[in-house]
Amino acid sequence: MTDYCPYQLLTAAAQVHCLLGDALLSPQDSTDLWACAGCRIPRIMANRPCIHLEPIKRFSLRGQGVTYFRCSLLDIVIDEPETLCPMCVDYEQS
Ligand code: SF4
User: Fold this and answer.
1) How far is residue 50's CA from residue 66's CA, in Å, rounded to a whole number?
2) Using an 8 Å Cβ cutoff, are 57 and 36 in contact?
3) How is residue 50 annotated by DSSP?
4) For residue 40, which atom of ligand 1 is closest to its CA?
5) Are 56 and 70 in contact (CB under 8 A)?
6) Percentage above 70 pLDDT, the chain
7) Does ligand 1 come within 6 angstroms of the Cβ of 57?
8) What are residue 8's phi and psi, to 5 degrees?
9) Does residue 1 line the site of ligand 1, with CB under 6 A?
10) How confident is the model over 32-48, as pLDDT tens digits?
């Protein structure tokens, strides 16, 4: 991760709390690609995406993270919002 993440909190125990994925990550884990270091969410959310776009993060097992996006207007899942959203007639940049 190179950008500021609005969903990231540092705990008193020096763990990283991903609020979006509701997961506690060790400082080492947070620098791995499966966690924060490979997460697309900070970059996409910093680029003023559509107001209807919601990021989703899931950590089902330690060492595995899944990232996708949801359009709250059309109720669809989007993998690459940076490509698809600007082509949508309902696109409204935040
Ligand atoms: S996993 Fe992604 S959304 Fe969660 S705290 Fe890390 S960078 Fe932010």
Assistant:
1) 21
2) no
3) B
4) 2
5) yes
6) 98
7) yes
8) -110, 130
9) yes
10) 999 999 999 999 999 99
Run of H or E residues at 39: none
Give per-residue burial for 70-87: e unless 16+ CB within 10 Å, then b.
Answer: bbeeeeeebeebeebbee
Q: Between the CA of residue 57 and those of 12, 13, 21, what are the distances in Å?
A: 23, 23, 5
Q: Which residues 6+ apart lie within 8 Å of 3 measured at CB?
A: 42, 43, 46
Q: Answer whether residue 2 shows pLDDT above 60.
A: no
Cβ of 81 less than 6 Å from ligand 1? no
Ligand 1 neighbourhood includes 40 CB (under 6 angstroms): no
Whether this prediction's pTM lies above 0.85 is answered by yes
The domain locations on the chain are 8-87
